[in-house]
Design goal:
The protein is an alpha/beta fold and about 375 residues long. The chain contains eleven helices and ten strands.
């Protein structure tokens, strides 16, 4: 099957979802924050820039297109703050990455978590119309991001189990609604799994008062229960990330310690995985893939830096991965998006598109 003839996602040459924000959009969002631009005028700018982005993705040859997360400041907070019972707030400090720090932002669960309406329903509706014949891909944070990255008001929930019940129901309701809007390609983005990849990460989980093994089981349940009962033609993938802010990272470590759960215990249709450098370890954990219908998207091309990887090196790594997973279950993508937050990674838009073309060209050569 060739890249051009493939009709089911994930695609042989695919991408994670976020793109660098154009300067015009950054300026408009800054003006809105200062009270110098109305919400309506900002939306017009967002609409126009998303239409340009969709056209660029189509011209590049991407079978699936996103809105680049152009309406968001964060890859996760914007969505989670739209759930009932969840509020965003400004923290004293941002999240520490490798040498840099994000803006100080966090989320609190201040009421019972639920879903009644959400801005991203309208956002997807706009994308679906703009996408035309291409697959309109929606990216949202995994439910684990609320479980493990939020503060919960004292006395609101007696346990993680109780919170999980409401959270799963909220996600199921959102998925049902977005399916009715025509979504057939949904991606859950998740950094919580990286907490279990290293001794340092597991120690941090213990510091939160959680048993790491029970936390792994909770993560798997949150995913599986949230997507249970979905329609057969709704494809759901998950992107597992070790952090992506201003071309830096937060976590390191191989998938090995939780590989049986990730590759053999999750009910997703595909996994977008980081394999762009030594931080991710080798392909050996893929030996636990036990389903012929699970697609593994190898994130071998970095979105953090502009240099293009040698095609032969990428092809040899794909071949190496095929020792563990059949070639017809493998795909290729950048290891992450280009702008998990509105600040974006340290490369230009031209370099970003060169990366996308690089992925598609290599995929076309490998899966002829």
């Amino acid at each position: 099957m060739t890249v051009s003839s493939q009709t089911r996602a994930p695609f042989r040459g695919d991408h994670v979802g976020s793109f660098l924000r154009p300067e015009r959009l950054k300026d408009a969002r800054l003006q809105k924050a200062k009270g110098e631009m109305s919400a309506e005028d900002l939306k017009k700018v967002e609409d126009e820039e998303i239409l340009k982005l969709v056209k660029k993705q189509q011209e590049a040859g991407l079978p699936a297109v996103t809105d680049g997360e152009f309406r968001r400041s964060w890859w996760h907070f914007d969505f989670l703050e739209g759930l009932d019972g969840v509020e965003g707030y400004d923290k004293e400090q941002g999240l520490p990455f490798n040498g840099v720090e994000t803006k100080p932002r966090g989320i609190k669960v201040t009421g019972r978590v639920g879903f009644s309406e959400h801005d991203m329903i309208d956002h997807f509706r706009f994308l679906k119309k703009a996408a035309g014949e291409a697959a309109a891909k929606l990216t949202i944070p995994s439910p684990n991001m609320l479980l493990f990255r939020s503060e919960v008001a004292e006395g609101l929930y007696e346990s993680d189990e109780e919170l999980l019940t409401d959270l799963v129901q909220a996600y199921q309701a959102f998925i049902t609604r977005i399916y009715k809007e025509g979504c057939r390609y949904l991606q859950l983005d998740d950094t919580s799994w990286a907490s279990f990849f290293s001794e340092e990460g597991r120690a941090a989980v213990k510091k939160q008062g959680r048993d790491p093994q029970k936390a792994v089981e909770l993560c798997a349940r949150a995913i599986n229960e949230s997507i249970a009962g979905r329609p057969d033609d709704l494809l759901i993938t998950m992107h597992i990330c070790r952090g992506n802010f201003r071309s830096t990272f937060m976590s390191t470590g191989s998938y090995e310690s939780v590989s049986e759960t990730i590759f053999g215990g999750l009910d997703v249709d595909g996994l977008f995985l980081e394999f762009d450098d030594q931080r991710s370890g080798g392909f050996e954990p893929l030996r636990h893939v036990n389903r012929p219908d699970l697609t593994i998207v190898l994130g071998l091309v970095t979105s953090k830096f502009p240099e293009l990887e040698h095609p032969d090196h990428i092809k040899s790594r794909i071949l190496e991965a095929s020792d563990y997973v059949p070639m017809n279950q493998l795909c290729l993508s950048p290891q992450c998006g280009f702008a998990s937050t509105e600040e974006g990674n340290l490369l230009t838009e031209e370099e970003q598109w060169a990366k996308i073309h690089h992925v598609l060209e290599i995929a076309s050569d490998v899966w002829k």
